[in-house]
Design goal:
458 residues, 12 helices, binds flavin mononucleotide, NADH Oxidase
């Protein structure tokens, strides 16, 4: 596969090389060594960004322990801090020797965290070209000014003026309007160091998960969001600050104001902040205790997926151990999961969930496994190479919701790419040449690694 570029980062071969097979994963990955093609030319890309500009940094206020509607918009310092921290902040420190120490609010393959989250303040009230761009730095719980328009529409820190004394980012002084966008970009190189040409697939999945995270946390804060995947808008929002091929535009959400009082509230668990702090993907090998999940897991999955940022996906759930739900194949319809076939799905799970001919995780002890599918055929016809980004955003956002629902019931959710896409299509009876599975998420009573995870407090 050839190198990607900024305007067209997703070659069409990715479907065959990274979704229908895992040919693009380098053999070095098994040993955790650098991918041969990525190691040589570029200096090691740190898993955590360190090279942010120092001179214009804005400390964020301490994130709250609870997420509640604040009645204020995203320019409010406490709303902004809570939104960023619980969407993509550093939430756990794992001190297990040899492990991956830093864990954020969303899952990431081998904790590489290639996604970046930036606050974009448009130059014109109804436009998308940025006046100022601030990058979220989760390690220091700060924003760093990354870019400002040269025409003087925004002075230094225009969107955050009022920072000063207490160090908190505050309401824009004389900003052009109240529109704020959170823009998701991805540094493929960070993941490519381990995964080589497979990186764009993981980066696209993770961008979607991050979009789902922002959407959910914003709702808990009482904000109205408009998640977006339109390519032209995205490229306008990224104008002037994503040069070269280092960082790829992936998706955005417009976060414009506090929602109207009485507006319908999407699915939210009662203590979302605590749930997000507890969310995890289990230990290196996913081998949960064979414990039945509560019936409410399916109720919550149904409601959460109905409130996903984008609706054009389907969720197939293979249930083994859920109280009150006979084992079988369920499909998400409306706000519920409905049984389409009864019977133990273990043989299906072990045929679908394979990595190079071996079963990927202990499906014998999972509670259930979700498969998120999209309409790949129609998307390719409509968007060409950009379909890859678009449909991964859709499925990724839903996958994050699945992981949050699991955490809300004290369970672990493991996104695992060790599955055979063609077998999944056949056994789940997806529409031939149209639907494709993009996520396999196993849910079970698995603990995190070794037990040294500490909450991070700012
Ligand atoms: C897109 C994606 C793909 C993943 N693929 C695999 C996989 O193939 N095998 C595996 O064991 N874990 C996989 N993981 C799990 C991650 O390694 C795990 O989420 C990471 O260790 C972060 O842990 P945490 O969610 O507990 O913070 C994947 C995660 C993501 C987000």
């Amino acid at each position: 596969m050839t190198a990607t570029n900024h305007r067209s980062p997703f070659p069409l071969e990715l479907w065959s090389e990274a979704v229908y097979s895992r040919r693009s994963i380098p053999a070095t990955l098994a040993a955790g060594a650098y991918a041969p093609e990525a190691a040589a030319p570029a200096p090691a890309e740190p898993a955590v960004p360190v090279a942010l500009p120092d001179e214009r940094r804005f400390p964020l206020v301490a994130p709250p322990l609870r997420l509640r509607p604040a009645g204020a918009g995203p320019a409010d310092p406490s709303v902004l801090a809570a939104l960023l921290h619980y969407s993509y902040g550093l939430l756990q420190h794992d001190l297990t020797p040899g492990g991956w120490p830093l864990h954020r609010a969303v899952a990431s393959a081998r904790c590489r965290y290639p996604s970046e989250l930036s606050l974009v303040v448009p130059a014109a009230a109804d436009g998308h070209r940025p006046a100022a761009v601030y990058r979220f730095d989760p390690v220091h719980h700060q924003l760093a000014l990354l870019h400002r328009a040269v025409d003087g529409t925004a002075a230094d820190g225009a969107a955050l003026d009022g920072t000063a004394a207490d160090g908190a980012a505050a309401e824009p002084a004389g900003g052009p309007g109240s529109a704020r966008f959170l823009v998701i970009t991805s540094r493929f190189a960070r993941t490519a160091q381990l995964y080589g040409d497979y990186a764009p697939r993981l980066c696209a999945q993770e961008a979607g998960m991050l979009l789902g995270a922002v959407h959910l946390v914003a709702a808990a804060l009482g904000l109205r969001t408009r998640p977006g995947r339109d390519r032209e808008t995205l490229l306008e929002l990224c104008d002037g600050w994503t040069p070269g091929e280092a960082e790829h535009p992936m998706g955005y959400l417009e976060i414009d104001s506090a929602a109207e009082p009485g507006a319908p509230v999407p699915w939210l668990p009662p203590e979302l902040a605590a749930v997000l702090r507890a969310r995890h993907s289990g230990a290196a090998i996913f081998d949960p205790a064979p414990v039945a999940a509560p019936a409410a897991l399916l109720v919550d999955l149904g409601a959460a997926l109905a409130a996903a940022p984008f609706a054009d996906f389907s969720c197939h759930l293979l249930v083994r151990r859920v109280t009150g739900a006979p084992p079988g194949h369920y499909v998400h319809t409306g706000e519920r999961l409905e049984s389409v076939r009864a019977g133990d799905p273990l043989p299906m799970l072990e045929q679908i969930g394979q990595t190079e001919g071996r079963v990927s995780l202990n499906f014998r002890s999972v509670a259930c496994t979700a498969y998120l599918a999209v309409r790949r055929g129609s998307a390719l016809a409509r968007f060409g190479a950009d379909a890859f980004r678009q449909v991964h955003l859709v499925a990724g956002a839903a996958a994050h919701l699945v992981s949050v629902v699991a955490a809300r019931h004290g369970l672990s959710a493991r996104v695992h790419n060790g599955y055979d896409a063609a077998t999944a299509e056949r056994l789940l009876q997806l529409a031939p040449d149209e639907e494709t599975v993009l996520f396999q998420v196993a849910i079970g009573a698995a603990g995190p690694a070794a037990g040294f995870r500490l909450p991070v407090v700012f």
